[in-house]
Prior knowledge:
The complex is a heterodimer.
Chain A: E1 2-7, E2 24-31, E3 34-42, E4 59-63, E5 70-71, H1 95-103, E6 109-112, H2 117-125, E7 129-132, H3 137-152
Parallel strand pairs in A: 1-6, 6-7
Antiparallel strand pairs in A: 1-2, 2-3, 3-4, 4-5
Chain B: H1 17-21, E1 26-31, H2 36-40, H3 62-67, H4 70-83, E2 88-93, H5 95-100, H6 104-109, E3 118-122, H7 130-144, E4 156-160, H8 170-183, E5 187-189, H9 198-203, E6 209-213, H10 219-229, E7 233-236, H11 242-257, H12 261-281, H13 283-288, E8 295-300, H14 302-314, E9 319-320, E10 323-325, H15 331-340, E11 352-354, H16 358-367, E12 375-378, H17 381-388, E13 392-395, H18 412-429
Parallel strand pairs in B: 1-2, 2-3, 4-5, 4-6, 6-7, 8-9, 8-10, 8-12, 10-11, 12-13
Amino acid sequence: MSYKIAVASSDGIQIDETFGSAKRFLIYEVTDGICQKLEERAFDEEETDCSGTSQASGFQKNGENGTGGVCHAKSGCGAESGCGNGTGGGCGGAGEASAKVELVSDCRCVVCKKIGFHIQKQLERKAISVFDVTCSVEEALEKISHYFIRMDNHESLRAQK
Amino acid sequence: MAKLLDKQRYKCALGAMQTVQAITRAIPILHSGPGCAQKLSDSTGSSGYFSPNIFPCTSINEKDVVFGGVKKLETTIENALKVIDADLYVVLTGCIPEIVGDDTGEVVSRFADAEKPVIYASTAGFKGNNYIGHEQVIGAIIDQYLEKSEKKEKGLVNLWADVPYQDLFWLGNIRELEKLLAEIGLTPNTIFGYNRGIEQINKIPKAEFNLLVSPWVSLSNMKKMEKKLGIPYLHYPTLPIGAFETSRFLREVGEFAGVEEKKVESVINEHENYYYYLIERYADLFLENRVINKQFSVVADAQYALGITKFLANDLGLVPAKQFIVDDTPKQYRETVAEEFKKLNYGLEAEAVFETDSYKIHEQIKEHDYHGYPLILGSYYEKELTESLKGNYLNISWPVQDKVVLDDFYAGYTGGIRLIEDIYTVAVQRFN
Lengths: 161, 432
């Protein structure tokens, strides 16, 4: 079983970006506990201007090996994201944030330096775990993949001494 | 195979946060998930200067499971010291940090130089219930805070009895026992309840001996204090309720402490005279009304099961049916506790059953022939059962739902009278 991890890092070494300020996410894929960098996803603020009546937003996928390409997706505050619908919940109008959540919606978790309360709730609603930590990307990936492999195999998290 | 436990009568070891709360101006700092204190703070009488709602908590979540919660714990302790004015800070660990391996002891040791004492107790739920947690907290105070004292204060006795909050009558009981000790000329020292706090804890090493009134809870603490602080202990396994046991209690304590026999006997005499004056006056109720049951069962922790069984058999002349001990007494104590149930007057013996599963307890009560209406003294779980058996029921152990107790008590001579009042109130209500 494989899953993806989104990492907010400016240099790929240190987790140094907050979720809000991150211009891109590094996407790693973990297959059977082995972690590999898959792609980088840039977040284009201009294209995702949600102000006014526009509900459209977009993002780009820049596949490293050229398989990515540009795509546009209708997302944001509409019904698709599941957080609009006039029900509020503190995220109804946060167009940019929602688009950013959409950008990583296929990931199992997000790793960043800090994250706001409401945006974390949006992610959690999509069953995406959030780890706001300050450490190296390598350390984070190692710990997270170790954790998920234990969870998936119903193994104890008891510390090995 | 996984076992299902029906209606258990205790909480997890983290429930010992109530032991900390019972020490005035001591506050627990919880290294646990955000729901633990909420779940554990169900009892009444826990609001006040510190209440479970404001206990500092690391509220650890998934992130801390993956990356460790040590940093969060450090900042939580640091800030608790800044914003909460307490005399003693006790860090208590829940299950999660202990499973993933947070080194709480190491973090707490960084606060060795703090202005106020910070200690920690390992109270993970998988280590035991809140009776064990209570022992862990007392143990932490002995291990990490108390120092041996060469100076001893004449007549000073540390008194240990019930588990605060778990026991409905903890406050009243310990005050009544204090009063009795004072009457025979000793100076009791306790750390729980009003006006008892760090000052009393500081006095512990100066005591001539420790007095433990409990079948097994805190016995390990007494041994620890004997070893570390050089304080001998007297273990009196039965909570004295009523004249017979209380007089025996005073004689034994008096002898151990070297109190003059004449003094002890005069105190006993005075109390017994009044006690039996009351019994005599109400003998008509006891003998003629025939409202009371012939046989009884107590469903409670070892402390109450033993104390009440002895009282009802020795003082009221009732016949014990099976007695159920529900505190998950550790195996090494079971034999000696069960033996105590066989030391009743009139050649009576009671069978003690160690059982934590309410379903099994209820089945055994239903099967037994009580030769009439059963008298069941137990927790709220026994209410419906007793009603279905048309018996008399009194709520004396956790969980308690139909009773409010501020500082009432069952210990001592007066406590015995209170218990008689409660039992007969239930009995006469049946016909009126």
